[in-house]
Amino acid sequence: MKAPISGATLSTGILDSSQSRPHLTFMRVVIIGTGGRVGGALARHFRLAGHAVMGFDRKALDLTRPEIIRDRLMPLAFDTVLLPAALTSLDYAEDHPDEAQAANVTGPALVAAVCADRGARLIHFSTDYVYDGTALGPRKETELPAPVSVYARTKAEGEHQVLAATQGAALIARVSWVFGPDRPSFPDQMIEQAKTGAALSAVDDKFSMPTSALDLCQWLEPFVDGPHRTTGGIVNFCQAGAPVSWQTYGQTTLDLAATLGIRLRTRHVEGRPLATMTAFKATRPIHTTMDHQKLTGLLGTPPRPWTDALRDYLRTYHAPA
Ligand SMILES: NC(=O)c1ccc[n+]([C@@H]2O[C@H](COP(=O)([O-])OP(=O)(O)OC[C@H]3O[C@@H](n4cnc5c(N)ncnc54)[C@H](OP(=O)(O)O)[C@@H]3O)[C@@H](O)[C@H]2O)c1
User: Is residue 175 part of a domain?
Assistant: First the structure.
């Protein structure tokens, strides 16, 4: 996997700006979680868009430490906070519920309270896993969360508390199966393993929607400094397409990679039932593909299909020059 283009790495907590792209308004943007897949992409994107970005990775701002949240945010002047940091490992969260509660609920609620005090915009990130996944069909924002794991329960409670602390003004961006250049994910792992000739298998009876971190950054622009700057509440942010299993995701990755001249020794991903994944500690929901009609209405155009976004990603970060 190739490194992301320059601008990806931010000095922790340093005010940084450039003027390489036009934007509507100059914003001072705090990003909490720049060490992660979404946070890294957001930091690069909004910095290159010309905003002043103050980025914090986990070492610089630990959400489980309320005093650190206050110490870091209080001295800063900012218009917007983007909060992708979270305890995201399902199985780790299942064994560490108190840490998950602190990172995914208490910390975000405190950040939200600071934003409410300052009159600052907050965009908080959540997950399709807040849905229980029992019903077929795309999940709408109006459905009540019914989480089936510690991770999902804490993310659902985090959404609720962030909205309560901001009186509904925060935007909750629910995302699913994110891939991007700032931290390897499923398609990167499939390609690396396929290069070695390893036999590959993936779950074929659990469904969601792969989503590009880079597309996500573009969709968020009007919510940061455009017409939706004051839009609050929950919005599903995901690509378009029919529900995808991990097996379909993996096979499509290898098929696209082959068309892009990426040399693979394994070309097939075998399907396997979720029930065979005996090492999983946390329960995984089955049908969590999200409905993107609300996002489409807000953007005025539908998100592109996941296969188009994945092809672009593989071409940029995996294909030979
Ligand atoms: N990736 C997905 O497929 C996916 C799917 C659904 C929802 N989401 C949601 O999208 C958001 C962004 O996810 P992501 O893909 O960027 O995940 P990620 O790559 O795991 O990044 C999460 C970041 O949060 C940091 N973090 C963990 N505990 C923290 C704490 N106590 N204080 C401060 N930072 C902490 C992590 O630090 P370390 O670098 O030290 O681990 C990591 O840099 C999260 O809210 C997640 O729930 C992601």
Answer: yes
